[in-house]
């Protein structure tokens, strides 16, 4: 895990990253730098070796994203939560748009090691970051990513998530007892990050840089969302953590209206199935009731926010209906207890109807039988009690203190109410070992009863499979699940989607999934251009206007109607001193241009000349002529020649001398053209020889192409050369033709 | 082959009547807004009645009576049964507004146009959407997408965008572009070139609103002056709309200056209103959301404002300077009316209007200049019946109950015969007798609900303790050989009733709200209304300040110019204002400006032609786009072909492309160009409308580029003598354009 930091150091040093490509030589030049980096380097070695041994090409996304930008390759790479639970972070890139889903930390690690593999990406290239919910494993590396990396994109989360995010992370920073240098960020970083986070409401459709996205209720915790992203018509659904079961305060996850092309879905519970909610609730209350009625204490280690509120609702309701328990106190031991209430009271619109209806009469989160507990100092441990304390994994903090205190008494009970992450004490005691290691380092017998009743509001197998069957996404990517569970889920899902049209992929961290979407680009022809729908073979000419991923074709006159762009017209008028006879100019012009019409100006009556209807020459006075024309490359050129002609005429040193009055014959014309074409081809390809019947042979590095000058056909073994010669010839022929002055 | 769009105003054109418009898009009829005035004048709804049954969907824009007041009545009496769409705040606050109106009316009259039940029933089927949520209509409306967007006027207020085949029809009335304390400005300006824009001319003649800060200060100054002079202030307000902004202004000022003068917010639903406001932070301005995220301070957790739902509570408060924000801005009925009558005679007091009163209301009269010296008001009061009246009433009750029971059996028999869902015979004399006559009596169309409605409509408070919310038909239940006669319907609708019941709890029957209104709702003692005319001498000061939260005329014009719809429909606003805005828009916005008369159906189908083509890979690989802001743009010459699936596709030309006139794309601002030239070391100055560059060259711009719909292309004229400078400036000018 230290590898993460190693990579980071490399990055700041050298963006070339030789190690990332599995280079044969580990980077040496850092060894001299400092002792600290040497130790880091060792870890770097490990990663380097590991990559070599698995033979898995370490994909450097930075490279792929730069080469395949604008490409049709859709790349999805878990930077965390690939075959694991924790540090959710999924990278996605398509059509040059890149985004991240979630930005969590791994609860079982600390410091840099807990971060997702951010080194695999270039944070400055990420356009968009979407955070599904406030849990640490989905949101806690956000302050780091926003404040300590080059990320400059936009971040979105729901209103409730944002409010709780701040509460939770501030607490996380305070509680996590790591050395200062291991601190990923401080409270100030969180505050600053708040200014950068934008909010999105459920179902609200937003667009950033051509990426359209919206979110659905996910059910998991208050404010939890599933994001649907639409890039150029390809839709990707990222579920985050979701639950399809309505509980006491949350709605069930919605079924999106549209089927996505790719569904990135959590697989926490794999193939397990939950018992029905009321059975779990009964089990839960029974265990607690039994324990306290026998004089024991109940410890419920739970994450401070989210599922805890659900459990409190259950307990409060149970206590209300069991007056005999009223002398047994329930404590909610979390420093956040009080503060989070305001949030839960405000965002009732994110909850289910039941709560919203209750809210109208009284606040359901105003618990009658539960008292908050800020620290253990306030807690008098005398007789039966129920304490809900954080953190849920018993790593440290209040729940651990209480556990250490109570674990050796068999009257007591510990109810683990949710999913526990691998590597935490809570996970260990589920297997009911004989002894446990206390926080002090001593060992103690584990006599207390341990119950595991899950209320964690993740989808179980039934929910997942029904959800996917309804959605029928052609591609399913499993994330957020422990490798074994995920594997079993994959097998079982494969049997469900046996028709073979559904791909199920379980990428590991940093392992990219590449998919090709052949998106058809559709354009809408509108306005004057579309007055008649053309039939096959006709031509369409106009402006192709692209905005985001939509294309429109329109006539230039319509541009200002259908877009905010406008077209301009530059009319130029230039006066030139000229004191000669106006007829001279006319004569000279006629020698060069086919169409020179003379007339008189209607207003002033002065003579004017019109050259190809583009440029008008007007005798302003004895000493001046003026030219005016509408700017356009061809007209500009014509006007330039007219200007040159007039200047020279006035100098009375005629330099434009007509070479011959005789019309050049067709044969001569053709010969001249041939010569020019040959010369130009030589300058492009080098070896160009004449062949019979006006054909040319072009020889480039052994590849030969035959060009028929009349038809423009090219024959060659080498496709590349053929195309190049073709294009070159087309351009040359259009270049040697006279400029079409009449065209408009 | 554009989408066909027709607009037919049902109410609220060329005047300030409530808003109600029928917009049909390819034959799918949207009723946009369903307003009523504060007098609940049924004659306004005649036109709605004529089309009510053809409406396929109802869109509501704001939670006040002018925009949704007629919904309960239309649902009950006019045969409107389409699904309704609104944002969550419009739904909640609209519901509260209707409750407040009903209760205020009920207090002083035998109000029977609709009941609380009708309100609940009408609001129950509203589909709630969030801002920028794309809702895809199904069935008949397949292909139509509706999306609400922030309007900025009231909380949850909506600019509706209806899209079909990429063409937008936007309905934006009463929008406010200015950011306020509790609301962000409208997002209307982010829409560009919709096919049709329907907007109002209400404020078209109003110009130059003072800046918000200055306006707020004037408001507070006026209040403080009166308070310091020991006066009382009445602010007649709406139930749950603009009042939120006023409360915030006061609360913040009181907090800053640590004032102790009491502030009261008095409506029948004030506590619910504030409770819901607290939970609608998502819909409010960024600063409110931010303050909550950072410090969890809910802006509507107000320390200085006391919420009252009963006037007697106000009377218990010792006399002294105070501010009362009381509902019914019209002063026609309700708390504001009563308080006005009491306070008007004291010259120390102040009545502060924050919105223009509706036409022909007391508020409007008082806002006229000069204000009337005295006004006639009707004081009505509901008093319990005593003596003979009570006896007569009870007798009447008994008779009615019997009839009721009789009718119930009749109906049951009928229903047993006919299958469920057959309409009641409209000619049933008792129904007509008991219910108010709708514009056409045959509209009494609520099906199985009719029986219950009749009971309440006759307005008789039930003798038992159950309120009109839960009609109670016991005592006279019929018995036959098999026991009590049951009404199968009671059991049929059980499931639906679950929702209804919960709805009622949240809306109305909860403890907080009820203490005050319970007296009325659950009033079981028979009562009657007594009225007396009385003349009130208006000695108190009257001040009107514009806190309506609507954009002023100048801003409306600017916004319309920016949005630049292809076709514009003007509604709602005095004839003068409508005509003024029409003329302005014809000149400056677009050539198609319509201001239809009542019931005049205008066709605003776009004459836009369009077809879809596929862009082949081959073509695209040869196209080089030029980037211009959000757009990328290129010239294409292509040949039409067909794909396997039969759609048209564009392929590269096999022959050399025909020449085309060069297009210069870009918009040049003279001022910007001046700076640009100056930065290149060329002397520039404006002289006589032209830009003089260097010594001899001038640059002029002709053609109005601000008129986007007019089809004018801007012309720039570059003049000068043959010189180096000329060509240099020309190069700089060209650099401002993309030539294609």
UniProtKB/TrEMBL annotation, chain A:
Metallo-beta-lactamase domain residues: 86-274
Instruction: Identify one Pfam family in the record.
Output: Beta-Casp
Q: Where in the cell is it found?
A: Nucleus
InterPro entries tied to this protein: Beta_Casp, CPSF73-100_C, MBL, Metallo-B-lactamas, RibonucZ/Hydroxyglut_hydro, RMMBL
Q: What is its main location?
A: nucleus
SUPFAM superfamilies referenced in this protein's UniProt entry, alphabetically: Metallo-hydrolase/oxidoreductase
Annotated Beta-Casp domain residues: 308-429
Domain (Pre-mRNA 3'-end-processing endonuclease polyadenylation factor C-term) ranges: 536-739
Which keywords belong to this entry?
Answer: Hydrolase, mRNA processing, Nuclease, Nucleus
Q: What name goes with this protein? A: Cleavage and polyadenylation specificity factor subunit 3-I
Automatic annotation (TrEMBL), chain B:
Q: Localized where?
A: Nucleus
Q: Which InterPro entries match?
A: Beta_Casp (IPR022712), CPSF2 (IPR027075), Cpsf2_C (IPR025069), CPSF2_MBL (IPR035639), Metallo-B-lactamas (IPR001279), RibonucZ/Hydroxyglut_hydro (IPR036866), RMMBL (IPR011108)
Q: Which residues cross the membrane?
A: none
User: Per the database record, which ranges form the Beta-Casp domain?
Assistant: 243-366
Keyword Nucleus in the entry? The reply is yes
Check the record and name the Pfam families matching this protein: Beta-Casp, CPSF100_C, Lactamase_B_6, RMMBL
Q: Mind listing the UniProt keywords for this protein, alphabetically? A: mRNA processing, Nucleus, RNA-binding
The primary location reported for this protein is nucleus
Sequence similarity: Belongs to the metallo-beta-lactamase superfamily. RNA-metabolizing metallo-beta-lactamase-like family. CPSF2/YSH1 subfamily.
Per its record, how is this protein called by name?
Cleavage and polyadenylation specificity factor subunit 2
Q: What is the lineage of its organism?
A: Eukaryota, Viridiplantae, Streptophyta, Embryophyta, Tracheophyta
């Amino acid at each position: 895990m230290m590898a993460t930091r190693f990579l980071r150091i490399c990055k700041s040093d050298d963006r070339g990253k030789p190690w990332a490509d599995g280079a044969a030589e580990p980077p040496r030049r850092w060894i001299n730098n400092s002792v600290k980096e040497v130790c880091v380097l060792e870890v770097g070695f490990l990663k380097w070796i590991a990559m070599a041994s698995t033979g898995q090409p370490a994909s450097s996304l930075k490279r792929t994203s730069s080469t395949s930008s604008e490409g049709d390759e859709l790349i999805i790479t878990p930077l965390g939560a690939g075959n694991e639970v924790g540090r959710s972070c999924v990278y996605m890139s398509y059509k040059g748009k890149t985004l991240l889903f979630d930005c969590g930390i791994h609860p079982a690690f600390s410091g840099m090691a807990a971060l997702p593999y951010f080194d695999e990406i270039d944070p400055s290239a990420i356009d968009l970051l979407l955070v599904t919910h406030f849990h640490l494993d989905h949101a806690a590396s956000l302050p780091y990513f926003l404040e300590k990396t080059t990320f400059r994109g936009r971040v979105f989360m729901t209103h409730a998530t944002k409010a709780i995010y701040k509460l939770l992370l501030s607490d996380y920073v305070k509680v996590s007892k790591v050395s200062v240098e291991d601190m990923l960020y401080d409270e100030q970083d969180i505050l600053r990050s708040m200014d950068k986070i934008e909010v999105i409401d459920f179902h609200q459709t937003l667009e950033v840089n051509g990426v359209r996205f919206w979110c659905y209720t996910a059910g998991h915790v208050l404010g939890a969302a599933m994001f649907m992203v639409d890039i150029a018509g390809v839709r990707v659904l990222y579920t985050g953590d979701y639950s399809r079961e309505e509980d006491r305060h949350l709605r069930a996850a919605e079924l999106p209206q549209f089927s996505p092309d790719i569904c990135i879905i959590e697989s926490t519970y794999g193939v397990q199935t939950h018992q029905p909610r009321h059975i779990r609730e009964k089990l839960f209350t029974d265990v607690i009731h039994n324990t306290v009625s026998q004089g024991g204490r109940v410890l419920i280690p739970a994450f401070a926010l989210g599922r805890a509120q659900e459990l409190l609702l259950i307990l409060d309701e149970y206590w209300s209906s069991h007056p005999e328990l009223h002398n047994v106190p329930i404590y909610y031991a979390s420093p956040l207890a009080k503060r989070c209430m305001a949030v839960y009271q405000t965002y009732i619109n994110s909850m289910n109807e039941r709560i919203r209806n209750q809210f109208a009469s009284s606040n359901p989160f105003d618990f009658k039988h539960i008292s908050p507990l800020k620290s253990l100092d306030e807690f008098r441990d005398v007789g039966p009690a129920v304490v809900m304390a954080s953190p849920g994994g018993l790593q440290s903090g209040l729940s651990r203190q209480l556990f250490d205190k109570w674990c050796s008494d068999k009257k007591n009970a510990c109810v683990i109410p949710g999913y526990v992450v691998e590597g935490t004490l809570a996970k260990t005691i589920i297997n009911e070992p004989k002894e446990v290691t206390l926080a002090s380092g001593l060992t103690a017998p584990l006599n207390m009863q341990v119950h595991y009743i899950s209320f964690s509001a993740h989808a179980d197998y039934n929910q997942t499979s029904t959800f996917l069957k309804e959605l029928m996404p052609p591609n399913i990517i499993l994330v957020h699940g422990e490798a074994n569970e995920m594997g079993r889920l994959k097998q079982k899902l494969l049997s469900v989607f046996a028709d073979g049209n559904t791909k199920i992929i379980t990428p590991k961290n940093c392992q990219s999934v590449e998919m090709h979407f052949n998106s058809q680009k559709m354009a809408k022809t509108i306005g004057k251009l579309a007055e008649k729908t053309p039939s096959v073979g006709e031509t369409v000419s106009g402006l192709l206007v692209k905005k985001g991923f939509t294309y429109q074709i329109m006539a230039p006159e319509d541009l200002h109607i259908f877009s905010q762009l406008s077209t301009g017209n530059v009319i130029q008028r230039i006066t030139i001193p000229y004191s000669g006879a106006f007829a001279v100019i006319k004569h000279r012009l006629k020698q060069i241009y086919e169409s020179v019409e003379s007339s008189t100006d209607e207003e002033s009556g002065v003579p004017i000349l019109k050259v190809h209807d583009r440029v008008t020459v007007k005798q302003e006075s004895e000493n001046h002529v003026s030219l005016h024309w509408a700017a356009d490359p061809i007209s500009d050129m014509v006007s330039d020649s007219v200007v040159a002609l007039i200047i020279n005429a006035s100098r009375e040193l005629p330099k434009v001398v007509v070479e011959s009055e005789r019309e050049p014959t067709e044969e001569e014309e053709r010969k001249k053209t041939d010569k020019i074409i040959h010369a130009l081809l030589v300058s492009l390809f080098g070896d160009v020889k004449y062949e019979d019947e006006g054909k040319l042979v072009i020889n480039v590095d052994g590849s030969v192409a035959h060009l028929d000058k009349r038809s423009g056909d090219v024959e060659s073994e080498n496709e590349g050369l053929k195309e190049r010669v073709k294009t070159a010839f087309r351009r040359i022929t259009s270049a040697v033709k006279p400029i079409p002055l009449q065209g408009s | 082959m554009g989408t066909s769009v027709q607009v037919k105003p049902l109410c609220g054109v060329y005047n300030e009547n409530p808003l109600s418009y029928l917009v049909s898009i390819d034959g799918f009829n949207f009723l946009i807004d369903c307003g009523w005035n504060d007098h609940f004048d049924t004659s306004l709804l005649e036109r709605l009645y004529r089309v009510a049954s053809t409406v396929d969907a109802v869109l509501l824009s704001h939670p006040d009576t002018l925009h949704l007041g007629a919904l309960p009545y239309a649902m009950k009496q006019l045969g409107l049964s389409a699904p309704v769409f609104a944002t969550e705040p419009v739904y909640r606050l609209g519901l509260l507004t209707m409750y407040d109106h009903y209760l205020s009316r009920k207090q002083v009259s035998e109000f029977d146009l609709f009941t609380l039940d009708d309100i609940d029933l009408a609001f129950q089927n509203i589909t709630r959407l969030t801002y920028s949520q794309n809702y895809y209509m199904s069935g008949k409306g397949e292909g139509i997408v509706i999306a609400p967007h922030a309007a900025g006027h009231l909380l949850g207020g909506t600019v509706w965008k209806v899209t079909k085949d990429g063409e937008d029809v936007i309905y934006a009335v009463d929008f406010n572009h200015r950011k306020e304390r509790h609301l962000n400005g409208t997002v209307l300006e982010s829409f560009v070139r919709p096919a049709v824009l329907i907007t109002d001319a209400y404020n078209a003649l109003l110009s130059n609103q003072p800046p918000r800060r200055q306006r707020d200060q004037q408001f507070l100054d006026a209040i403080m002056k009166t308070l310091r002079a020991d006066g009382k202030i009445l602010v007649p307000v709406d139930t749950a709309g603009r009042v939120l902004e006023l409360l915030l202004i006061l609360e913040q000022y009181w907090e800053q200056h640590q004032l102790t003068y009491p502030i009261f917010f008095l409506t029948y639903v004030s506590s619910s209103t504030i409770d819901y406001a607290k939970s609608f932070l998502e819909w409010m301005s960024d600063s409110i959301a931010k303050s909550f995220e950072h410090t969890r301070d809910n802006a509507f957790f107000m320390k200085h404002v006391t919420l009252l739902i009963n006037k007697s509570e106000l009377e218990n408060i010792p006399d002294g300077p105070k501010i009362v924000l009381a509902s019914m801005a019209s002063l026609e009925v309700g708390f504001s009316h009563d308080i006005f009558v009491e306070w008007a005679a004291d010259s120390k007091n102040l009545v502060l209007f924050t919105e223009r009163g509706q036409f022909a209301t007391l508020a409007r009269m008082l806002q006229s200049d000069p204000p009337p010296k005295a006004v006639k008001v009707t004081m009505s009061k509901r008093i319990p019946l005593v003596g003979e009246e009570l006896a007569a009433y009870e007798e009447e009750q008994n008779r009615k109950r019997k009839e009721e029971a009789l009718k119930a059996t009749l109906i049951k028999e009928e229903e047993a015969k006919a299958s469920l869902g057959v309409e009641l015979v409209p000619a049933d004399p008792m129904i007509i007798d008991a219910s108010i006559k709708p514009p056409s009596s045959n509209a009494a169309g609520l099906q199985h609900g009719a029986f219950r409605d009749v009971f309440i409509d006759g307005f008789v408070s039930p003798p038992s303790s159950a309120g009109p919310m839960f009609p109670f038909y016991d005592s006279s239940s019929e018995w036959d050989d098999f026991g009590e006669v049951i009404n199968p319907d009671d059991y049929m609708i059980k499931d639906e009733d679950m929702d209804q019941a919960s709805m009622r709890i949240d809306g109305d029957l909860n403890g907080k709200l009820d203490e005050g209104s319970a007296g009325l709702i659950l009033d079981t003692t028979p009562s009657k209304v007594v009225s007396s005319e009385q003349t009130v001498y208006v000695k108190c000061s009257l001040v009107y300040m514009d806190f309506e939260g609507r954009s002023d005329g100048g801003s409306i014009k600017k916004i319309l110019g920016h949005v630049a719809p292809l076709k514009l429909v003007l509604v709602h606003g005095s004839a003068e204002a409508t005509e003024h805005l029409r003329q302005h828009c014809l000149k400056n916005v677009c050539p198609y400006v319509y201001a239809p008369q009542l019931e005049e159906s205008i066709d605003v189908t776009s004459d836009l032609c369009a077809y879809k083509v596929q862009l082949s890979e081959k073509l695209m690989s040869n196209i080089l786009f030029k980037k211009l802001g959000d757009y990328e743009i290129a010239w294409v010459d292509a040949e039409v072909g067909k794909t396997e699936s039969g759609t048209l596709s564009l392929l590269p030309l096999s022959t050399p492309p025909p020449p085309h006139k060069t297009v210069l794309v870009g918009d040049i601002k003279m001022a910007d160009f001046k700076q640009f030239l100056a930065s290149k070391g060329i002397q520039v100055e404006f002289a006589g409308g032209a830009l003089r560059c260097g010594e001899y060259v001038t640059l002029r711009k002709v053609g109005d580029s601000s008129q986007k719909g007019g089809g004018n292309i801007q012309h720039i004229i570059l003049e000068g003598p043959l010189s180096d400078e000329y060509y240099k400036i020309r190069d700089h000018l060209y650099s401002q354009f993309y030539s294609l």
